[in-house]
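Q: Give me a protein?
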Amino acid sequence: MTEIPEHLLNRSKARRSGGASDSSDAPASNVPAIAESAKPAVAKSAPREKVAEPDSPVVVAAKSRHKIPFWAMAGLATLPVWAFIYLLALTPAEEEVTGPIATGIAAYSGCAGCHGAEGAGGAGQVLWEGESLKTFPHIEDMLNFVYTGSQAFQSAGIGIYGDPDREGGGRVPLAYNGNAMPAQGPTAGGALTEYEILGVVCHIRYDFSDADIAGEWQEEWEKWCAPESEIYAALRAGTTSFDTLDADFMTNVVGTKARATTAR
């Protein structure tokens, strides 16, 4: 007879008596379930809220910077215009040249080929840095020389022109590079009018030779070369000429009349 294991007998007795079997006699399969149910419940924590990172100093500065009002944009748009006006105000206005000097500047273009654009000389005599004033202390003598030219002096047997007392003595006709000074006066075959000759002489004396209009040369300037010069106005209007200046203006404006007459 087969022997029945004791634990099976005990289980059978327990079933018949309605009692529970010893926990040690429970099947092994029930142990994990009992152990799992015996574990204490673990409370689930709520998800953490994402904490914003602080702004960088650059962003903070940008956010705190005062914004330009929209109405200021119109003013900013006009800044280039105001800058241009400001520059114009700082730029000195060019003085308008009138009278004999203006005429002389225009007429001198025909003289620049020999005497240089600024009177530095070339085929013709040097005129700048006071040279014309040293040669012709009196404007009347310079007017006469420009009118008649150096050839007329030589033909008349006049050995020098200009101031004989200047350093080095007076100028000798045709002695400078062997070139003659062409006559510029209308009756001597020249291309300039008498008022243009006056303008050229004034331009040379006051622009190239820097005669001081407020000093030694003031009287000459006011009489001959100022914009308000009555002599210039009369020459331009044709109411006087180099031949009649003495009578018209009741003064010895032509200077050495005998020398002028001889040369012409």
Remarks:
- Residues 194-208 form the longest helix (15 residues).
